[in-house]
Design brief:
- By secondary structure, the chain is α+β, with helices and mostly antiparallel strands.
- It is built from four helices and 21 strands.
- The strands form five sheets. Strands 3, 4, 7, 8, 9, 10, 11 and 12 form an eight-stranded antiparallel β-sheet that branches. It has a four-stranded antiparallel β-sheet with strand order 1-2-5-6, with helices on one face. The protein has a four-stranded antiparallel β-sheet with strand order 14-15-16-17.
- A hairpin with a 5-residue loop joins strand 10 and strand 11.
- It is elongated.
Length: 337
């Protein structure tokens, strides 16, 4: 009996020792997590702060993920924008409330220069800011802008989204549309101010009223041919029937640097194939420009062109294998004007 008791005591002692070591290991891991959290907070960049009249309350807008030399440009694996409310206790401000205004992952994020404007509605003070999102990598061409209106007192905020993609006619703006936010319908004054703020943004493109204007030639060509050749990777298919429009304005110059682009020329036409872009022609007899084919991509749609007869060209994609080839007869293009 004594031997059994001794064995049991030894087993228990070993169990206690093992258990203590496990507990010690868990504690160390927990401490590491807490340190990581602390370093995250230390990495927050203050974008904006405002105090009330008697300096008893402070609102701060901060970000995590900002690059080293520009706190308004976020490029981390995780990005977020925080709003925090502080109340003064003695000589120090103490955090009493915080919320996440915006967050994303693996996305280039820019805070607009027009941000941090103030607006007053029914004696309530609001803060406005704009946030542009561009996906990292080549898989997505779409961009998004969020226009945010923050109630400084309650930290409640409203959001209006605008989405689209950069196009030739829009230049640095995004050619797109607003996403209807039904929750704003119950707040007409806030909705009005948000839209006014958004329409002044450099990221929102305002279309020309004249859809036949030469700056809208890509959109007209796509509408006439019932296509939308905007791709991330790959290329479009050239259809058997092509519709186009003549323009007096210089489409070569508008489309880009045509002198450094792929070009061919004969007695009747000069034709330019822009890098991963459109194919534009100048009719020497009519003294008019017209799009033969419109297409944009991040990679995969660059085209080589050559004359195979006086009035027909071969279009060959060459970035990927196999390399598809199409023949376009310029005499068979149907013009809308």
């Amino acid at each position: 009996m004594k031997i059994k008791a001794i064995i049991i005591l030894i087993i228990c002692s070993v169990s206690v020792l093992v258990s203590c070591k496990k507990e010690e290991k868990v504690t160390k891991v927990k401490d590491k997590i807490e340190i990581d959290k602390k370093s995250k907070l230390d990495s927050l960049a203050v974008l904006y702060k405002t105090n009330n009249k008697d300096n008893t309350e402070e609102i701060r807008i901060t970000t995590y993920g900002s690059i080293e030399n520009d706190k308004y440009f976020l490029a981390g694996d995780k990005n977020f924008i925080l709003v925090s409310q502080y109340l003064k206790k003695g000589n120090d401000f103490t955090l009493v409330k915080k919320d996440t205004l915006f967050s994303n992952k693996f996305t280039y994020t820019r805070i607009g220069n027009e941000s941090f404007q103030k607006a007053t509605i029914d004696n309530k003070e609001y803060l406005l800011l704009s946030v542009n999102q561009t996906e990292m990598g080549n898989a997505v061409t779409e961009e998004n802008v969020a226009f945010i209106m923050l109630d400084i007192k309650t930290l409640h905020f409203y959001k209006l989204d605008y989405t689209g993609e950069p196009t030739l006619r829009s230049k640095e703006a995004i050619d797109g549309e607003f996403i209807e936010n039904e929750s704003l319908n119950s707040k007409p004054e806030i909705k009005k101010v948000l839209y006014q703020f958004a329409h002044k943004s450099k990221w929102v493109f305002h279309t020309s009223e004249d859809q036949d204007h030469y700056t809208n030639y890509v959109q007209k060509w796509e509408a006439d041919n019932n296509v939308s050749n905007h791709l991330a990777n790959g290329h479009s298919e050239v259809s058997d029937t092509t519709y186009s429009t003549y323009y007096k304005d210089n489409l070569f110059k508008f489309t880009g640097n045509y002198e450094e682009s792929e070009s061919i020329e004969n007695n009747n036409f000069k034709i330019v194939s822009y890098f991963r872009g459109n194919i534009i022609a100048f009719d020497k007899n009519k003294k008019m420009y017209f799009p033969i084919y419109t297409e944009t991509c991040v990679t995969g749609c660059d085209k080589k062109i050559k004359f195979i007869t006086e009035n027909s060209i071969e279009v060959k994609y060459y970035e990927y294998s196999p390399y598809p080839t199409s023949i376009i007869n310029l005499d068979q293009i149907i013009f809308k004007n």
